[in-house]
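quick one
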Amino acid sequence: MQDLSDRIIQTAPKSVPRRRVGRLHGPRRLGQVVLGVLFVLLPLTNGLRLDVRRDTFYFAWHKTAAHDLFLLFWVSLLAVAVGLTVAFLYGRLWCGWACPQTAASDFAESLRKRLDQALKTRPGKPRFRLSRTLWGLGIAAMAWSSGLVLACYWFAPAEVWAAALAPASDPAPALTVYLSAAVLTVDMLWLRRRFCTHVCPYGPLLGTVADQNTLAVRYLTERGGECIGCHQCEVDCPMGIDIKEGVGQHGCISCGECVDSCHVVLGRRGTPGLIAFRYGTAPDRAMSALTLRQKLGLWDARRWAVFLTVPLCLGVVLWLLFGHGPLSASLTASGAMARTPADVRNGYLLTVVSGQPQVSTLALSVIGLPGATVEPPAVRVQPRDSRTLPIVIHAPAGTPPGRTRLTLRVSRGTDAQNLTAIFYAPRP
Ligand code: SF4
Ligand code: SF4
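structure w/ iron/sulfur cluster:
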């Protein structure tokens, strides 16, 4: 395995890909467009948003309290499970097909190439400065738009828009927009693929979990004699890699552009391409020869174990979203107590947290103090919200002076919490 990062930097200007026609390029671009649309729509439609000002977490178009740590924990665990499964089974497929950094680099390089073509220019030719100026402006506009969307993941979209137009009026969302835009502009103008090879930890981390059964783009060395040496696979590689030098090279992002290149070049001669996605390096791993389980990457027990964490975490998240979420409550004495001709009363502060997706009505009752009642007898809690309110326990007027240990039962159907408290009856 060879580290080609230095070569990538040197060859970066030449890595602008030609127009490609292939089997994988179209689906890859379509996938990037779909993910881009999702990136914009998710915060705008409350599909995914953590509103830091309203202490509200939106997930899957459900509104929850940001302090619903149980749900946040399982959503985070689900994201980790999906990431680990994709990395373990499919190697760097994420990098080439779904990573926002690759999409941003593809966009920047594609825009630069199209502008050069439209203005019929290249380095040293007339209108080259104009082309690069327009390119910079296009990148800045895209970075600003992306900064707006990113800020909408943390603030209400209306607040973000108002702050972007008048930053002094609301500095927090404005800073989020303009700092994000500045970072993205630098990234798309200068970093691009260098980020993947020099900054991103995903590639090195993947090296610790990938093995001979991980999906990767491979040059079919067993058919090496059929290569016509056209170098098209190298020219079209956005990372400036020669895949013929070996599988699993550090800079390879499994985009599959070289697969298309060779397929097109050799296809004109009636020969199948020499580069393909394969599980491992064994020559007999052609996709057409694999079972469905193997095609899905489930080669061994370790992969099954990692893969099964996804439905497990997803099940818990769905249960938390659509099922009966947990109920918790706590009770503290407020110190208020009185004996009147009608009754003896003690005051408490009750806190209830409902994990239910609907409004809950919680019934309150007293156990252990004969004839006692609670005021109010029921409490309403908003979906996935908490509420703290004062309650009063009334005991009959004839209750003897002294301390009594009682239980306050907070119930929602069969779901219930028993809270113990001390009831103090003062002397008449
Ligand atoms: S070697 Fe092929 S799969 Fe790897 S980055 Fe280059 S074009 Fe993409
Ligand atoms: S595109 Fe195919 S035929 Fe051309 S150099 Fe690459 S591997 Fe060889």
